[in-house]
């Protein structure tokens, strides 16, 4: 069976594409992948998705999914091992199963970046985490460091104050890039302090994290700090490795698109953070998912027209 459209990824981009293509009657198949639900599942309160004054990230995803299912989206769990974008129909491999489709929407999102220290790797899951929402509760009455200066670092720090006795934000510059409102909340929270112009040089411990070595980037001084946990919140990298060699990627691995969603391959569209160097919001990802769905509609109706013309000959 050849599908009309397969959507890879189940964050706001994929689910919005699923909603639109299912309402068009294309009976889309959505493949979830390992980071099912995308970054919203790791988010606490969302206050900037229009229509919701405040909603938990996982709840927003649940509602989007229910809406897509209502109109006929089918879901498949599994990690994609290979894609053949140039073949007609397009082929998508989930382990030994091959799915064939006339069109494809890639909305694989982005994953957390790591600092790149060997000690960070050693202690991942033993005091080092990139997901405050997942692991925060393990740090009740403990002292933690959050690395980063963007909205994620602000949000994680604020969330962690629910559990930790205190939170220290370690940032490499002397100003945050986070939105004003998030910065204000951080500065107003007595449990949070900030170390400016500072980098984590090493994470120390034995079985678990017990401290960090911090470098002041202005003076080069190294200081040791006793700590129970390190949360890394330094941004994200696009989940695009599956498509390298078949689609154009930029120097950071984002898929290069035209008009947000178009690729050089007919029938292959991209939506959301995997192609978004700049905006990276749930609502912009959802918007890109809609654009991709409308391009699929255009493409499938062109294929239908060509088929009808052939049949007339
Ligand atoms: P981001 O905005 O790219 O910020 C990453 C932060 O980490 C920056 O402060 C950066 O420092 C720092 N950094 C990067 N690489 C580093 C390294 N190797 N070592 C130390 N520090 C490093 O990423 P984000 O905070 O994950 O946010 C991504 C997007 O999602 C943004 O558009 C944000 O607005 C959005 N977001 C929104 C919300 C919300 O509205 N509730 C919540 C989370 C995320 P520099 O500043 O020096 O570059």
Can you describe what's shown?
It is a single chain. With 313 residues, this protein is an alpha/beta fold. It folds into two domains: 2-111 and 236-312, FAD/NAD(P)-binding domain; 114-232, 3-Layer(bba) Sandwich (FAD/NAD(P)-binding domain). Helices cover 27% and strands 28% of the residues. It contains seven helices and 19 strands. It has helices at 12-23, 57-70, 118-122, 132-135, 151-160, 180-188, 282-312; strands spanning 2-8, 29-31, 45-46, 55-56, 74-76, 80-84, 90-94, 97-106, 110-112, 128-129, 143-147, 166-170, 192-195, 198-205, 209-216, 222-226, 229-232, 236-238, 268-270. Strands 1, 2, 5, 6, 7, 8 and 19 form a seven-stranded mixed sheet that branches. A five-stranded parallel sheet has the order 10-17-11-12-13. β6 (80-84) and β7 form a beta hairpin. The protein is elongated, with a radius of gyration of 22 Å. The two termini are 26 Å apart. The model has no long low-confidence stretch (mean pLDDT 95). Bound molecules: NADP nicotinamide-adenine-dinucleotide phosphate (NAP). Residues 48, 115, 147-153, 155, 172-173, 177, 234-236, 280 line the site of NADP nicotinamide-adenine-dinucleotide phosphate (NAP).
């Amino acid at each position: 069976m050849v599908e009309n459209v397969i959507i890879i990824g189940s964050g706001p981009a994929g689910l919005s594409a699923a909603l639109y293509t299912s309402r068009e009657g294309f009976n889309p198949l959505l493949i979830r992948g390992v980071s099912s639900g995308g970054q919203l599942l790791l988010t606490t309160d969302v206050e900037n998705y229009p229509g919701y004054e405040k909603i938990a990230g996982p709840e927003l995803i649940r509602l989007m999914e229910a809406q897509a299912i209502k109109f006929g989206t089918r879901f498949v769990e599994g990690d994609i091992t290979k894609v053949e974008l140039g073949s007609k129909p397009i082929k998508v491999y989930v382990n030994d199963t091959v799915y064939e489709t006339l069109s494809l929407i890639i909305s694989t999102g982005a994953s957390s970046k790591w600092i790149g220290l060997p000690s960070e790797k050693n202690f991942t899951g033993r005091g080092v985490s990139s997901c405050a929402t997942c692991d925060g509760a393990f740090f009740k009455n403990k002292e933690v460091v959050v690395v980063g200066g963007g909205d994620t670092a602000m949000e994680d720090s604020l969330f962690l104050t629910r559990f930790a006795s205190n939170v220290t934000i370690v940032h490499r510059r002397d100003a945050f890039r986070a939105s004003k409102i998030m910065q204000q909340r951080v500065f107003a929270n007595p449990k949070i302090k900030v170390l400016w112009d500072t980098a984590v040089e090493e994470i120390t411990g034995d079985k678990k994290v017990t401290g960090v070595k911090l470098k002041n980037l202005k003076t080069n001084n190294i200081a040791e700090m006793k700590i129970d946990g390190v949360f890394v919140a330094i941004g994200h990298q696009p989940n695009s490795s599956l498509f390298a060699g078949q689609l154009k990627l930029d120097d950071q691995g984002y898929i290069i698109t035209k008009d947000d969603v178009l690729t050089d391959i007919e029938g292959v569209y991209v939506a959301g953070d995997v192609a978004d160097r700049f905006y990276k919001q749930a609502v912009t990802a959802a918007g890109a998912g809609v654009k991709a769905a409308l391009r699929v509609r255009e493409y499938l109706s062109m294929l239908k027209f060509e088929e009808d013309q052939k049949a007339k000959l």
